């Protein structure tokens, strides 16, 4: 009898399901199957589909999709009220009918798709950072399918992996994780750190912040805790972290020396624990100026304080978001919470060593290197009594069955995915991470060349602080000669990019976390800068989107009279429109709309007047469209990547 059959990865036909029985019979006959001894194996014929193909082809995924980039094939049921009976291409982000929402709209009542733009004319949204690079990854790995995770359908008990770092299944994922990180060049040392399963880096950071809050509240009298954020900086759901820690308030330290002991309810009162974001510019640190906050006794501390009574801790994204800072924390290790979602060779310059960072905790996930829809990740936390006790209780709550128990597919899916990727050497062009590096570098190259043109022509620039290829975003600002002209156009969108380039990118106005933008001025004096002058471009859409962005930037920065679309302004028109009659710059309070902003029709007429004086007059319809998309009073719809405190749904 046969003990195993080894599949062969061979070139695929147009339809991998077209297997002939004769080919299979011939293979078995030629290998004397009936007399094979135990332990022998034979290859499956090249005409047989692989398991990945059996899963992918019927769904028209992978290279068998009829859909263009950033879209995939989907079938909705006839009774689905949002997309009744829709069959066809949907957007990779959101699975919206008709395709990518920059190009199409869908009307459920009439079941019709309407084209609203093309790659060359659309208002492209490059805001949150949801990866939509399937087509690029298939092309660069030269494979028919993306990595496919498969499981046998068997009955089983409740999940066992949760708050116990010594659980056997958790240990298996931990070992695989460490092997995978070593595979891609990580030098992180997780000795004397405990491993926990999470639902992604974001979930892990909420957990580790809660763990640190609980640990501090259990070991000190401090209840008002500052978190250092090197501005501009990414943030998390701070309220959720405070909630998880406060749920354990009965264990908070309640010593007789604590000032809170004399308050009603003592040091274990509900709602007493609080967290404050403290944004601080790197230029202030460089000048020797550090923030100071008081502990429970009124003693002032800087973030680098080693005192046990220090109220400080820091979150550090490595490489950073929105700037790819690749640096250590300002705090001691036991106060440094590391977000390692971009700690990969794909988000640093070629040849950069992924060095060991000294972290209290380190959260990571498959989100940014494989799929943001696969909510799976892990974290490490230092193993000493106070930290381990806090970790056990916070993770016990967060991984409880009623909250988000770790599923079998989440745990073993990560193991299977990492092992599949490690089967191919990192140096091979067909390696997943190798291909991801190449597509990220290609986007960087295109944007870097275009932004260099814009900087040369004194329009906009990337911050000198950000080295090329570092990070998953490009962060910059208007050239100092144009700072102060940008206004709030609503929806946290950058004025220049939306008005002139017809690209919708974040102004990242929330990223200052209390810092004043004029304090930033990295190697540049920027007295006129406001939050409206900054931009952040994520690098997770298809390469073609960034090639188009580079084309438009190069066009308008080279020829200040050029327009990319009928509803966009030229650079000269934008400057004139943003310059008041007095000639002074339109400075305003950060993140606020001008008082008594003109109405839509009035602004449209102003746009027509300005465009006529400086180039070709925009017609009324296009002027109204431009006025609508730059309306400072338009609501901001929360999306992934924005602060949780801005949620309004």
What does this structure look like?
The structure is a single chain. By secondary structure, the protein is of the alpha/beta class. It has four domains: 4-49, no CATH class; 57-117, no CATH class; 168-422, Type I PLP-dependent aspartate aminotransferase-like (Major domain) (Aspartate Aminotransferase, domain 2); 434-646, no CATH class. 28% of the residues lie in helices and 13% in strands. It has 15 helices and 20 strands. The chain has a seven-stranded mixed β-sheet, with helices on both faces. It has a three-stranded antiparallel β-sheet with strand order 17-18-20, with helices on one face. A two-stranded parallel sheet has the order 1-2. The protein is globular. It starts with a strand and ends in a 20-residue tail after the last helix. 44% of the residues are buried.
Secondary-structure map:
Blueprint: E1 4-6, H1 21-30, E2 41-43, H2 51-56, E3 71-75, E4 87-91, E5 104-107, E6 112-115, E7 124-125, H3 134-141, H4 168-183, E8 193-198, H5 201-219, E9 224-230, H6 238-246, E10 274-280, H7 282-286, E11 293-294, E12 300-301, E13 313-317, E14 336-339, E15 361-365, E16 377-382, H8 385-398, H9 408-422, H10 432-456, E17 460-462, E18 473-478, H11 495-501, E19 503-504, E20 534-538, H12 543-558, H13 571-578, H14 600-613, H15 620-629
Parallel strand pairs: 1-2, 7-19, 9-10, 9-13, 13-14, 14-15
Antiparallel strand pairs: 3-4, 5-6, 8-16, 11-12, 15-16, 17-18, 18-20
Report the CATH architecture of the largest domain.
Answer: 3-Layer(aba) Sandwich
Percent strand: 5-15%
Largest sheet: 7 strands, mixed
Task: Please state the CA-atom Rg, rounded to the nearest Å.
Answer: 28 Å
- Rounded to the nearest angstrom, the distance between the terminal CA atoms is 62 Å
The CATH class of the largest domain is identified as Alpha Beta
- SSE-based structural type: alpha/beta
Number of helices: 15
Sheet with the most strands: spatial strand order: 8-16-15-14-13-9-10
pLDDT < 50 runs, ≥5 residues: 1-13, 32-38, 586-596
Arithmetic mean of pLDDT? 88
Organism: Chrysochromulina tobinii
Protein name: Coccolith scale associated protein-1
């Amino acid at each position: 009898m046969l003990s195993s059959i080894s599949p062969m990865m061979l070139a695929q036909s147009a339809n991998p399901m077209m297997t002939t029985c004769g080919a299979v019979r011939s293979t078995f006959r030629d290998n004397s199957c009936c007399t094979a001894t135990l332990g022998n194996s034979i290859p499956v014929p090249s005409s047989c589909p692989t398991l990945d193909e059996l899963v992918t082809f019927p769904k028209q995924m992978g290279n068998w999709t009829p859909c263009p980039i950033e879209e995939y094939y989907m079938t909705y049921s006839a009774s689905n009220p949002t997309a009744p009976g829709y069959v066809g291409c949907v957007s990779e982000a959101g699975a919206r009918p008709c395709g990518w929402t920059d190009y199409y709209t869908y009307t459920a009542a009439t079941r019709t798709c309407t084209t609203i733009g093309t790659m060359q004319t659309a208002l492209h949204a490059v805001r949150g950072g949801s990866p939509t690079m399937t087509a690029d990854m298939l092309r660069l790995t030269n494979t028919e399918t993306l990595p496919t995770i498969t499981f046998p359908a068997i009955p089983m008990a409740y999940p066992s992996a949760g708050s116990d770092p010594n659980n056997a299944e958790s240990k298996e994922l931990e070992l695989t994780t460490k092997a995978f990180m070593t595979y891609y060049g990580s030098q992180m040392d997780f000795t004397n750190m405990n491993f926990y399963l999470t639902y992604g880096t974001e979930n892990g950071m909420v957990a580790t912040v809660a763990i640190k809050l609980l640990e501090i509240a259990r070991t000190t009298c401090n209840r008002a805790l500052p978190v250092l954020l090197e501005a501009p900086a990414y943030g998390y759901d701070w309220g959720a972290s405070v909630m998880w820690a406060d749920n354990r308030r009965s264990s908070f330290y309640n010593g007789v020396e604590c000032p809170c002991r004399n308050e009603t309810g003592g040091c274990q009162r509900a709602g007493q624990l609080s967290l404050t974001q403290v944004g601080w510019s790197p230029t202030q640190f460089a000048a020797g100026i550090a923030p100071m906050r008081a502990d429970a006794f009124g003693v002032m501390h800087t973030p680098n304080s080693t005192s046990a009574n220090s109220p400080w801790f820091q979150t550090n994204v490595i490489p950073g978001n929105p700037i790819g800072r690749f640096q250590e924390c300002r705090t001691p290790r036991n106060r440094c919470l590391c977000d390692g979602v971009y700690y990969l060779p794909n988000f640093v310059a070629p040849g950069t060593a992924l060095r060991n960072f000294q972290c209290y905790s380190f959260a990571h996930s498959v989100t940014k290197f494989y799929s943001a829809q696969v909510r799976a990740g892990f974290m490490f936390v230092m193993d000493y009594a106070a930290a381990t006790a806090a970790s056990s209780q916070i993770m016990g709550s967060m991984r409880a069955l009623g909250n988000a128990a770790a599923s079998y597919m989440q745990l073993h899916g990560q193991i299977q995915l990492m092992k599949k990727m490690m089967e191919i050497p990192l140096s091979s062009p067909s390696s997943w991470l190798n291909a991801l590096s190449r597509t990220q570098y290609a986007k960087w190259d295109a944007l870097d060349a275009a932004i260099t043109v814009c900087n040369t022509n004194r329009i906009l620039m990337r911050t000198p602080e950000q080295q090329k290829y570092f990070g998953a975003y490009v962060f910059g600002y208007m050239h100092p000669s144009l700072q102060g002209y940008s206004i709030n156009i609503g929806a946290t969108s950058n004025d220049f990019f939306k008005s002139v380039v017809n690209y919708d990118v974040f102004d990242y106005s929330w990223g200052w976390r209390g810092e004043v933008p004029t304090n930033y001025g990295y190697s540049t004096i920027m007295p006129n800068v406001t939050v409206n002058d900054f931009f952040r471009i994520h690098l997770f859409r298809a390469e073609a989107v960034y090639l188009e962005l580079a084309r438009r930037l190069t066009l308008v920065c080279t020829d200040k009279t050029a327009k990319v679309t009928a509803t966009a302004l030229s650079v000269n028109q934008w400057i004139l429109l943003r310059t008041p009659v007095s000639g002074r710059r339109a400075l305003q309070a950060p993140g606020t709309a001008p008082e008594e902003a003109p109405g839509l029709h009035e602004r449209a007429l102003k746009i027509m007047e300005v465009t006529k004086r400086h180039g070709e007059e925009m017609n009324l319809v296009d002027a109204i469209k431009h006025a609508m998309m730059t309306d400072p009073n338009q609501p901001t719809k929360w999306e992934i990547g924005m602060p949780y405190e801005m949620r309004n749904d």
